[in-house]
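The records we work with from here on pair a chain with its fold. These numbers are not coordinates but entries in a learned vocabulary of local backbone shapes. To see the layout at work, look at the sequence and tokens printed below.

. . .
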Amino acid sequence: MSFIQNTNRKENHMSTHTTGEKPGKGAYTCKACGQVVVLDNTNDVLPPCPKCSKTTFKK
């Protein structure tokens, strides 16, 4: 798992995921602060946001 700085990318279709889920590989953006968490493995568990500790992300 790795962390990326905030991005301002806009995507047409965004799904919501919560800490503790295994949503699959990809970049997940914290809905509260915009911090991006990248999951590198399909078995990675989505952690709380490393910046603000919130638990809801969009993909």
Q: What stands out?
A: The beta strands are 2-4, 16-18, 26-30, 36-39, 56-58.
